[in-house]
Amino acid sequence: MKLNVGMVGYKFMGKAHSQAYKDAPMFFPDAPKPVMKAICGRDPEGLAQAAAQFGWESMETDWRALVARDDIDLIDINAPSNAHKDIALAAAKAGKHIFCEKPLALTLADSREMLEAAESVGVKHMVGFNYRFAPAVQLAKKLVEEGRLGRIYHYRAWFLQDWIVDPDFPLVWRLDKNIAGSGSLGDLGAHLIDLAHFLIGDMKEVIGMSETFIKERPMPSSMTGLSGKGSVDAPKGPVTVDDAALFLTRFANGAVGSFEATRYALGHRCTNAFEINGSKGSVKFDFERMNELQVYFGDDSEEVQGFRRVLATDPAHAYMNAWWPAGHTIGYGQTFTHEVVELLHAIAADRQPVPNFRDGVACQAVLEAVERSIVERRWVGIEEM
Amino acid sequence: MKLNVGMVGYKFMGKAHSQAYKDAPMFFPDAPKPVMKAICGRDPEGLAQAAAQFGWESMETDWRALVARDDIDLIDINAPSNAHKDIALAAAKAGKHIFCEKPLALTLADSREMLEAAESVGVKHMVGFNYRFAPAVQLAKKLVEEGRLGRIYHYRAWFLQDWIVDPDFPLVWRLDKNIAGSGSLGDLGAHLIDLAHFLIGDMKEVIGMSETFIKERPMPSSMTGLSGKGSVDAPKGPVTVDDAALFLTRFANGAVGSFEATRYALGHRCTNAFEINGSKGSVKFDFERMNELQVYFGDDSEEVQGFRRVLATDPAHAYMNAWWPAGHTIGYGQTFTHEVVELLHAIAADRQPVPNFRDGVACQAVLEAVERSIVERRWVGIEEM
Amino acid sequence: MKLNVGMVGYKFMGKAHSQAYKDAPMFFPDAPKPVMKAICGRDPEGLAQAAAQFGWESMETDWRALVARDDIDLIDINAPSNAHKDIALAAAKAGKHIFCEKPLALTLADSREMLEAAESVGVKHMVGFNYRFAPAVQLAKKLVEEGRLGRIYHYRAWFLQDWIVDPDFPLVWRLDKNIAGSGSLGDLGAHLIDLAHFLIGDMKEVIGMSETFIKERPMPSSMTGLSGKGSVDAPKGPVTVDDAALFLTRFANGAVGSFEATRYALGHRCTNAFEINGSKGSVKFDFERMNELQVYFGDDSEEVQGFRRVLATDPAHAYMNAWWPAGHTIGYGQTFTHEVVELLHAIAADRQPVPNFRDGVACQAVLEAVERSIVERRWVGIEEM
Amino acid sequence: MKLNVGMVGYKFMGKAHSQAYKDAPMFFPDAPKPVMKAICGRDPEGLAQAAAQFGWESMETDWRALVARDDIDLIDINAPSNAHKDIALAAAKAGKHIFCEKPLALTLADSREMLEAAESVGVKHMVGFNYRFAPAVQLAKKLVEEGRLGRIYHYRAWFLQDWIVDPDFPLVWRLDKNIAGSGSLGDLGAHLIDLAHFLIGDMKEVIGMSETFIKERPMPSSMTGLSGKGSVDAPKGPVTVDDAALFLTRFANGAVGSFEATRYALGHRCTNAFEINGSKGSVKFDFERMNELQVYFGDDSEEVQGFRRVLATDPAHAYMNAWWPAGHTIGYGQTFTHEVVELLHAIAADRQPVPNFRDGVACQAVLEAVERSIVERRWVGIEEM
Hints:
Four copies of one chain form a homotetramer.
Chain A: E1 2-8, H1 12-27, E2 33-40, H2 44-54, E3 58-60, H3 63-68, E4 74-77, H4 84-93, E5 97-100, H5 108-121, E6 125-127, H6 135-145, E7 152-160, H7 177-180, H8 184-199, E8 203-211, E9 216-218, E10 236-238, E11 244-251, E12 256-262, E13 271-278, E14 281-286, E15 292-297, E16 307-311, H9 332-348, H10 357-376, E17 380-381
Parallel strand pairs in A: 1-2, 1-4, 2-3, 4-5, 5-6, 7-12
Antiparallel strand pairs in A: 7-13, 8-11, 8-17, 9-10, 11-12, 13-14, 14-15, 15-16
Helix pairs in contact in A: 1-9, 4-5, 5-10, 8-10
């Protein structure tokens, strides 16, 4: 079985998805084979380069044309967030399966509209929460589901980065609320929330706080990308998103939770971490050591209790049998391979992949509840949303 | 110079303080020499054993008698918390210096009364926040003070224990609000708050949440101490304190903060930890590895940036020149030696030791603000207190 | 520029090389593009499956036919070790560039013959010491070369695995001297030696010891592969290679060294580790955390000296600019991408890639010196070889 | 029961022993109580200060006088190594129990003479290998003895320090063979050997190598102690001991072993570390984190295998019930308390303490075998000694 893919977007995520489509058939030959049919973007020159470099068969500069093509089975959306909704609605209307990067949309209402559109026509839909697909995270999920951690008491999550600590770092689009919608909360917090949903379940209520530490930054030169540096002498503009956001949670199952997202934690390039404490055991994860899960069991014999550093690269660990012998690690890029494999298998089996738009909506609901709690300085119930 | 000590209490803290008095003259000969003059407790038999075992010269079974003795310069209070206030007020009235374990008192009002009493007569007063005296914590303080971390953006603190995860663990006095006053918040959270005050400064407002996961436990048999286990078949009684408490903070200097205290984090015996993120650097500390501080500097050259694991046992580190050659670690007990040395030096220099009752009061104010925020489900300003 | 590749072998290494050829053009578009022209193996069925799965354009069941093809520029040899020599000699004779997996050959004499053959016709030759291509290892090399570690005093290397600790694990071909040539020494020790050559330079003399702990094992059933388990009740046969090998070294530059290779270190799946101590600094590496290098500088200021955990994923680190933003790790598979990129760039620039057959020969010389030192129970000079 | 102690020496080890005598009765009240009766040294002024500071009742400036005193039960020898033998022989002759610091003597012959002298008169004798008394090391021993690691295959030990990396560090007595006898081998290697004997058992044969990296150093000024720095401009003298020493071992039980001792490993203040690999499990220890033992069991279930970081501070761990609640660590100083408690209990029970002079002799035999193997460049059997 083959599946023809049309992809909108060709930057960071476009590259990650392309590698996944390329490598999946090699390491997961039992899944349907994705065919890299067409790539779509607005800038013909950049697009052509990406198509050649990533190995796509054809190009489209208008996503409407892509969606209209008969030879496309799946639309992969990793264009800027504010374009997600329109593309997804059109794809659903055209009866295409949809793989959409997070955040699903800029608002909860939009994301719900996308979910309904996809569900109403019966296509498969997936949202790009790739961190779920680290084998160590899958192991955490399995331990929770098998009851090996017991009743969950406490969930602790933090996503720490440090790429804008320099006050002269320019005012890139991610720092502009009109374009990015949100700052650390929507960017990093969204991942934290999705992992919590995946591992622990729904939240009941939240209360948060946020801060913008550097309120003005030099305007970027036209050439400045995400990681670019503009001129220090450039005129300054206001930062309109949060630099850091924190919130407390009460989960539906009674557990308490704390969440922290920041772009101002020097020394942390990509610390996407969580800890779960249950009545029978605990686990800890840090994405900077993504092949490892720290696991503690309360019923280990008395003298030799301690967190075990499990290197999740054994054949027993999710997806790892497909790669290398035990002890040979994988990286960030491979989480996308696993994600794509889940999507392909789901389509083949005529079931919804996980995580799908329902998960995207659930995440958006918590994000908006947190934002409301910050503005109104009070606890906000998720059911309010 | 010598200083005659009279100590009330002879359990866990009594033992820790006794070792400190014993060892201080050997490792810190420049400080005044504490003389272990008299130990005081209500149970004559237990007291006699403690006096012999710890090496105290005499005994008193009534603290009033101890306070009245002419040959006592310093009253060391490590009796149960609800006794702190009366003893301290009497000691102040008698013109004795006071060294009081944390928490200073059960209420903010009481602790303020104690502070005023001590200040009005001009005696020296100290409160027992011993974690400040780990050399690695002193190094963190020094880096903050010297500006090497820059402007502080984020403070993260967590104190995790696991000693009551077993639901059959009996209802010891620490789980009874009438006696203990508070649960994880007052016990563990107090240490977190004091370290934050020490390292970062005052807080402006807080909002918290707490939970009691196991609401009933077997009544302890008469023999059950802190770590004892009663009969599983014993009748049950209600747990009246919090098992876990979390809160968010905004500091006076603009930094954001998160705090978590729990006795339900399996795998953590005594994880008293913090991380500080500033504009120039970050530090991390975990008491289970109390000789180490993780230090990151943003201006390290590009290729070799990373958290340094500093083993704070070099002669350059606070107090360490007194102990062993570099690389030879100290333990929990030695934090009390340092604490006592600070007290002795302060008395000799006719200055207040640090931390003193002011710090105890400041900690109590935050604790009560957090409690109010939990009850009233709203942000509470510290100045309200 | 394109380069047509013909690959002999399609198992573990064949898969790793195939992924490298696939991904290289996507992440390193400046290098010549490898074309996956033909794959070669003896079993037509297995070969056909591999060709389809990995994406090779055509197949050959006889390597002589492959070598004879006009449309092949580069012969990639990852067939069993005992086939390396004949294929390489034929490839050289045919004027093809050669990329040969380690070990270059079963004997030092053979490897020298291969080097001479390749050199005499002027083709490019590379040997597959892929661990050099972890960015953290490249960083270690750079620090040594820039003199930032000063004069090197001590090199410590250990490669620990645990895949044959179970005495019922069958007698696979890697445990048969006739086929594998050597055990832990040739398999794991070879990587240790190459990294030492890369990082520190030549050795002067060695003395070693080895041991075979389990001397008999069940004969494997015909279906048993590397990781398979045969029947416990199967008749037993003798293990004819070493389970563990250790040796001491004196380097040409005066440094002392210790090396340990074992397949009997429970808990270690793939601990390929080294530490270098110099007069100005030290570094530590462990492949199980391949994205990290621990770096210590003696001239860091006194209070904040400590090993820095450098996450070698910044744009400043070798090869990493091609992948993801800082903090997003890579895995084992990506070391082959880098290796292939070095090969492609070298061919384009008409220079020998590094490591090449000279490095393979140098490694083989040390291996044989160690073996001789074990047999003759004496120090053996490398120049004896 | 009380025991009167007379101690010869009052520097580093004298201080460590004094703290142990002071603290033992407080934390281990069931052991006989040591009475700090007399301290002995040659310099009256330094001695008087030490006596006052450490809390000894009386002084002697001649160890012969001390040994002759009727009120002394135990002679504690921590004077310079070259004085050990005479004092011990005299003490034995006088019927005193003996506690002697390592190394027992400067030569194997001397140490044997000391053992025979003590045995012939039936006094108790102990040698100061304090590292055995870290609770984490005791746990390792227990796991080995209970067979939980299975058959031992591999022992790996390294003691790394960095205090003389600076070439201008003066030529202190520890670098003079006439006084110190040996360098890194006798100082650090002796500890490694003793731990190996304790944990694994006897060795069969060894082969070693050593190096002196900095062959000349400035003569120290008269004031320079162990850690002092003399003048860079001082005339230079030859370093006559080894800076680093390495050796390989075959144990009597068939295990292989590697040992490394160096004072030139920047970043390591006191890394006294070992790893044991057995057929059922492995353990790892590093003295810089002396409260922890890493423990791996091969029979842990497949998905959750990994080294456990056991914090050896639970009541179940050796000696820890006497100190603080779980999670509250101890330091270097407390290993001496445990050592002294073993000695006191042994005397009370009329049995030899462990480790005793037999262990001191066994260690010396290996040290001399290593030295011979270095000189003669060959494997040396321990039974040769």
